[in-house]
């Protein structure tokens, strides 16, 4: 069948990823077929294979891109200073980076179970890089006598889960401003580490 109008790789490739992201976030990986993604984009199902090897590769690419963009943004935003200032900056960064990316965040956490073992290992490796930064901040705070906690790894995971969870309930039109909620979260994180 002939190529549909507007089906150019520099246009269609991103549209395939955007459609897959939207549909998987709405319906779940198992419920979304390649044919459904193709319909959303406006191409024949077979044309998708010009942009991805298969549905597993598409899911993996979405997750890997999310983590690579997160790590690049975090590297640019990293601050030096005492552990308290670094913890506050990490908290604020996590909130601001994740909130506008609700679909990516949802897929990155809820669809891990659908990755092949090799793909899962790669995403876990990338996640560990991010988690390790926070764990180092916490350990530096403990070493300096500023933070008081029982286990840096468990506290790291608890903080990240708490901050990430905000993307499921926050609404811009809610009763509190983002600045106010961010301040509340900075305070909660500080209390969690014993400040």
UniProtKB/TrEMBL annotation:
Residue ranges of every copy of the HTH tetR-type domain listed in the record: 10-70
UniProt keyword annotation of DNA-binding present: yes
Record InterPro entries: Homeodomain-like_sf, HTH-type_TetR-like_transc_reg, HTH_TetR, KstR2_TetR_C, Tet_transcr_reg_TetR-rel_C_sf
Pfam families associated with the record: TetR_C_24, TetR_N
PROSITE patterns recorded: HTH_TETR_2 (PS50977)
Keyword Transcription attributed: yes
Keyword list, A-Z: DNA-binding, Transcription, Transcription regulation
DNA-binding region: 33-52
Gene Ontology terms for molecular function: DNA-binding transcription factor activity; transcription cis-regulatory region binding
Protein name: TetR/AcrR family transcriptional regulator
């Amino acid at each position: 069948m002939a190529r549909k109008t507007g089906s150019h790789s520099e246009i269609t490739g991103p549209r395939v990823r955007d459609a897959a992201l939207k549909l998987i976030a709405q319906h779940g990986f198992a419920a979304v077929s390649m044919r459904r993604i193709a319909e959303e984009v406006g191409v024949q199902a077979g044309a998708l294979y010009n942009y991805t090897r298969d549905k597993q590769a598409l899911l993996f690419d979405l997750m890997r891109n999310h983590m690579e963009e997160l790590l690049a943004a975090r590297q640019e935003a990293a601050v030096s200073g005492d552990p308290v200032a670094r913890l506050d900056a990490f908290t604020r960064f996590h909130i601001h980076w994740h909130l506008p990316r609700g679909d990516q965040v949802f897929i990155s956490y809820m669809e891990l179970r659908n990755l092949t073992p090799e793909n899962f290992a790669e995403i876990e490796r990338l996640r560990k890089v991010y988690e390790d930064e926070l764990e180092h901040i916490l350990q530096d705070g403990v070493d300096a006598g500023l933070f008081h906690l029982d286990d840096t790894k468990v506290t790291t995971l608890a903080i990240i889960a708490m901050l990430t969870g905000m993307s499921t309930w926050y609404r811009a039109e809610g009763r509190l401003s983002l600045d106010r909620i961010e301040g509340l979260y900075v305070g909660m994180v500080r209390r969690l580490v014993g400040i």
